[in-house]
Amino acid sequence: MKGKTLTGYSGKYQCTGSWMWSFYTKKSNIASITVLDKPRATLTAGTTIIPVGGSVTLTCSVQSSDGWKYEWFRRTQRTSEVQIRDQQNRDIRVSQGGIYRCRGTRGNPVYYTDKSYEVTIEITFSNKVVVKQQPNWPQIFRGETITLTCEVQEGGETTEWEYEWRGPRTPTQWTHNNDVTFVVSESSSGDYMCKSRRRDDSYSSTEWSEAFTLSVSTDQPKAQITSHMRDIPVGGSVTLNCSVNASSSSSGWKYYWYRDEKSSEALTTQDAVFHSNGQISVSQEGLYRCRGGRGNSVYYTEDSQSVRIDKKAAPEPESSSFLTPLIVGLVCGVLLILLLLLLLCRFKQSKDSFFVRTRSTNQSSAMNHMIKDEAQHSRHASTVQGDACVYESIKDLHDTQNDDSVLYAQVSHDRAKTKKDNDDSLLYAQVYYTKAKPKRHKGKPAPAAADETVYSEVKSQTALD
Questions:
Q1: Which stretch of DSSP H or E encloses residue 346?
Q2: Residue ranges of region Disordered (predicted)?
Q3: Structural domain boundaries of the chain?
């Protein structure tokens, strides 16, 4: 009995034989036939990832039956399925990525099983893949915008790739974009990984990158403003500093300055002098505040507390309090020295004058006697002629041999004065003592000449009588 078997033909079969022209018959043994559905081949793989430079083993089998040979097939997402030639064994080794299937054959005519289910084999490239964050700030705050980039290293720039992501806020399908941009929130915290594959070979990819951990800070940071001075000196300015001290790892901030509470426009270079990032100098009084911002889609901190700057006279520097006493002390010292020198000169002049007056007094005593005699001799002439002047030459008693010493006396008789005083017996004499220049002796310095005036009271003869 020939024919295709169907499941309905399953059962026990027996046949009977007889002789011709005879009633003798004989039955055969009973044969049990179980007709099964068309079998499906089973494909198994030791691993579905081909290591760099390696291969994997694929096995095809038909359950609970023998005598099979096998056919192998491969396709990709861009190519149709084709049979792999010269491969009829149960086990094969492949080094190319793709989608594989197999089926069993036996008999003549050939009977085919159903093809196995598909198994995807991928090749791992040696290129290393890393996840990078831009901007590369150590601390990220809720509401900031960041970009994660999947970067293929070690020659990957010469190949067109597509990328797959794993992470809380990343796509799960393959994409041609190697980056993903999003606004972070509490749910964005977690580990992010990526891998890439060639666009012309969907079954050849890199390994997954190392996990990149993203931590999101939920509290909005606040700027801080500081100033060493609150009063603007005359013709000067005050320096203000702004910073964001959310943590030691906070960075990348630019600073915006404002004056007065209701002002929403940031200061410009016309309003202040901008120094290094976060520092300005202002010369206008007012209420100042600042805040930080960073990123292309600028993320702002909270405003700092306000600081009032007033325009007043600048306090004296600390150095002036030290220099003022020093200068005053030096001036007083110089004045004291000058005063001492002046007193010394006056003392020397007073000493010299004392010696001169002593000498003149001695000489005037002798001259008084001589003037007395002359006055007696001329009293009668004075009485007749009224007010008269008498000039006499008087020699120095101490110098009887030299005629160089001469005294000149002018004796005046003032009637008006004597009448007023009721005493006409008084004469006043003004004596000029001229010391002639002595002759110089060899080897001895000449003494200095001195002109001196001596006043003497002279009485007339009548008074003396």
A1: helix 318-377
A2: 437-465
A3: 1-122, 129-217, 223-311, 358-464
- Quote the pLDDT of residue 223: 92
One-letter amino acid at 288 equals Y
Instruction: Give me the pLDDT at residue 20, please.
Output: 67
Pair 409, 395: CB distance under 8 Å: no
Residue 105 and residue 68: Cα distance in Å, rounded? 5
Give the CA angle between residues 21, 23, 24 to the nearest 5°. 110
Secondary structure string (H, E, C) spanning 397-436: CCCCCCCCEEEEEEEECCHHHHHHHCCCCEEEEEEEEEEC
Query: What is the band of 54 on the pLDDT scale with cuts at 50, 70, 90?
Result: confident
Residues 292-319 pLDDT 10s: 999 888 999 999 999 998 887 545 555 5
Phi, psi values for residue 291, rounded to 5°: -155, 160
CA distance 304 to 97: 60
Specify the pairing of strand 307-311 against strand 231-232.
parallel
Whether 255 contacts 274, CB under 8 Å: no
Determine the Cα–Cα distance for residues 26 and 412; give it in Å rounded to an integer: 214
Q: Which two tokens stand for residue 20?
A: 């011709």
Tokens of 164: 């797959």
Tell me which CATH homologous superfamily contains domain 223-311.
Immunoglobulins (2.60.40.10)
For tokens 């594959």, the residue is: 197
Residue 170 per-residue DSSP state: S
DSSP state of 250: -
- For 1-122, the fitting CATH number among 2.30.290.10, 3.30.565.10, 3.90.79.10, 2.60.40.10 is 2.60.40.10
Query: Where does residue 174 rank: exposed (0-12), middle (13-18), buried (19+ CB within 10 A)?
Result: middle
Q: Classify domain 129-217 by CATH number.
A: 2.60.40.10
Q: What element of type H or E holds 49?
A: strand 49-50
pTM of structure: 0.51
